[in-house]
Amino acid sequence: MGTAFAVLLVFVGCCSNVVFLELLVREFPGCGNIVTFAQFVFIALEGFIFEAKCGRKKPAIPVSNYVIMVTMFFTVSVINNYALNFNIAMPLHMIFRSGSLIANMILGIIILKKRYSASKYLSIVLVSTGIFICTIMSAKQVHDVSSDGSEEEGFYAFMHWLIGIAMLTFALLMSARMGIFQETLYKQYGKHSKEALFYNHCLPLPGFLLLSTNIYNHCILFSQSTPVVVPVVGVTMPIMWLYLLINVITQYVCIRGVFILTTECTSLTVTLVVTLRKFLSLIFSILYFQNPFTAWHWVGTAVVFVGTLLYTEVWSSVRAALRGDKEKKAE
């Protein structure tokens, strides 16, 4: 029952979160900072009350380690959101972040001296190929769009897009490094996922002072958006604030669902559910928002997710399950 409920939370929470994030970004492309800030404040307050017991509970993992983890986490979150300002379409943004398997494996080999099976290396090739296809096709679209203007404007737009790709690449590698660091901490101190969730969202809050001007400007823009009546409650509020509120709540639901999954399921199940959720979010984004997506984009997307499923050894698990059913029937 717990597992089914967690899967429901992940799909409903994460997919809804992507929808309202895109609604926000389409209206104000540079609003990533205020969205991230709102999410961090909400999760930090919830964690302070229910996990830290209003400061009375001491952390199981030293705070100094959380400071290192939080620095990486904050950097990744801000860069991923800020990359949307550089001609990066939401589908490409989601596909690119699906390359976390590659980054994790590469850094695992370099830092942890890990060795993997042939199927794992094949998955790297597939995921890399899929991301490469989608990236190249998106670059072509940027070039085609920018070619309507002058040559100088076209070059500027393309360089702008390249900066966004560089930012996503850096965030991908930094996220993988954070995952390895978190893995070593859990081996040393034990798993404390909910505690880590709280400190990852609480400690970075002072860092948002650096982004205060941008956040304040978007507060004003959000307040000037079209007022709407909130159903059931009957309160009137600007529509962008409503979108942000729903985005924050669905983000929390999504993270809580993933947390429950990690405590009740194997890592294989968690990875599979999150991968399928990404795929569903991507398809919904393309269809609902009519994002430009060519046949080559579909090929690239399919290759990315086939590679991801290969990495999680889903095929082996399915074959083993079928073999087990055949043996039971034979008996």
From TrEMBL:
Q: Which GO terms describe its molecular function?
A: UDP-N-acetylglucosamine transmembrane transporter activity; UDP-xylose transmembrane transporter activity
Keyword hit for Secreted: no
Cellular compartment(s): Endomembrane system
Transmembrane domains' residue ranges: 32-51, 63-83, 95-112, 124-143, 155-176, 197-216, 228-246, 258-289, 295-318
Q: Name one Pfam family in it.
A: UAA
Q: Which UniProt keywords apply?
A: Membrane, Sugar transport, Transmembrane, Transmembrane helix, Transport
Q: A GO CC term?
A: endoplasmic reticulum membrane
Q: Which domain of life is it from?
A: Eukaryota
Q: Does the keyword Membrane apply?
A: yes
Stated membrane topology is:
Multi-pass membrane protein
Which family does the similarity line name? Answer: Belongs to the nucleotide-sugar transporter family. SLC35B subfamily.
Which PANTHER family does the record match to this protein? NUCLEOTIDE SUGAR TRANSPORTER SLC35B4, SOLUTE CARRIER FAMILY 35 MEMBER B
User: What is the recorded name of this protein?
Assistant: Solute carrier family 35 member B4
Upper lineage: Eukaryota, Metazoa, Chordata, Craniata, Vertebrata
